[in-house]
Automatic annotation (TrEMBL):
<protein>
    <recommendedName>
        <fullName>BTB domain-containing protein</fullName>
    </recommendedName>
</protein>
<dbReference type="Pfam" id="PF00651">
    <property type="entry name" value="BTB"/>
</dbReference>
<dbReference type="InterPro" id="IPR011333">
    <property type="entry name" value="SKP1/BTB/POZ_sf"/>
</dbReference>
<dbReference type="InterPro" id="IPR000210">
    <property type="entry name" value="BTB/POZ_dom"/>
</dbReference>
<feature type="domain" description="BTB">
    <location>
        <begin position="21"/>
        <end position="90"/>
    </location>
</feature>
Length: 302
């Protein structure tokens, strides 16, 4: 769960009422200057709110630095800050529950690289206490794996664990996807991008915390299946850091309301498209419970 001081913002500041005061942030090793509306930045980030509206020298000088953040990543953060958009790893972003908040112009990148970007943005939201950014990023990552029914490649796992605490909801999501969808070394030793995965050699770089977490989760899943229960389905709210059950219930209701057919407008094409309302695939009938031996065979061997 997010800290008691962190709260999701349900509104977005209006330029009609926003204070025009700007702050300067020097980004990356080159310290490239970026000017940002202080009210917008402090609205979403507890970190910057304390910095620019507290008794620190930054509040007086109205400037700070983020040398550990790449300039290009900061640009995507500004896109989110001002427009509430993120790069969408899905090829068909209408599959996302919030299609109007997923398209980002200028992101002509591979699916794997978009996923890396969103992971880095999640880590940025964790480091600078921006719960709304974390929420949007984890939604993108969850629905990417959920819609395509794939598991993370090694690069994605290493990237997340290198930039986040081991108990991060995103790290738990990666463990859960492996334990739910199974493992095939022929695929996951390479992933989508063989060049980036260096012929499967990244397996030896997988974090110990990830391997241990997957083992514990996997054993629990096996016990669950042995008892004759059906495999649990994923719920994005498991990774939302909700304060209590009431907030979780409200989030689920809002999410279900958003998935109703609606007209959407993509920023990238600037053309309106009708969200699909027909030809919805018929849900696959529940299959007979697979044998436990088949399920165990999917557990990774290192």
């Amino acid at each position: 769960m997010m800290s008691s001081n962190e709260k999701l913002k349900t509104d977005h500041p209006s330029f009609l009422t926003m204070d025009p005061t700007m702050v300067t942030i020097f980004v990356g090793p080159e310290k490239k200057p970026h000017t940002v509306h202080m009210d917008l930045l402090t609205h979403y980030s507890d970190y910057f709110r304390a910095m620019f509206k507290g008794s620190f020298k930054e509040a007086e000088e109205r400037k700070t630095s983020m040398e550990d953040v790449q300039d290009s990543l900061f640009g995507y953060f500004l896109d989110w800050l001002y427009h509430q958009t993120l790069p969408c790893p899905l090829s068909d972003c209408t599959l996302h529950p919030r299609p109007t908040r997923t398209i980002n112009p200028g992101t002509k990148l591979s699916r794997a690289k978009k996923l890396d970007l969103v992971t880095r943005l999640y880590a940025l939201g964790d480091q600078y206490e921006i719960p709304n950014l974390r929420r949007d990023a984890i939604d993108h990552i969850f629905y990417y794996y959920d819609r395509l029914e794939v598991v993370p490649d090694y690069r994605s796992v290493i990237l997340a664990y290198d930039n986040l605490p081991e108990d991060s909801p995103l790290c738990q999501l990666l463990i859960d996807r492996y334990c739910r969808n199974g493992y095939r070394a022929s695929v996951h030793d390479y992933g989508e991008d063989k060049e980036l995965n260096k012929d499967g050699k990244l397996r030896s770089d997988l974090p110990y915390a990830f391997l241990l977490g997957m083992m514990i989760k996997g054993l629990g899943t096996i016990a669950h299946l042995v008892e004759g229960n059906e495999r649990k389905t994923g719920d994005v709210c498991d990774y939302h850091e909700h304060a209590d059950d009431e907030e979780r219930k409200k989030c689920k209701e809002e999410r279900e309301a958003r998935t109703m057919p609606t007209r959407i407008k993509t920023i990238e094409t600037a053309t309106e498209v009708q969200a699909p309302t027909v030809n919805v695939p018929t849900p696959t009938p529940t299959r007979t419970q697979p044998s436990i031996r088949r399920w165990i065979s999917k557990i990774p061997r290192f």
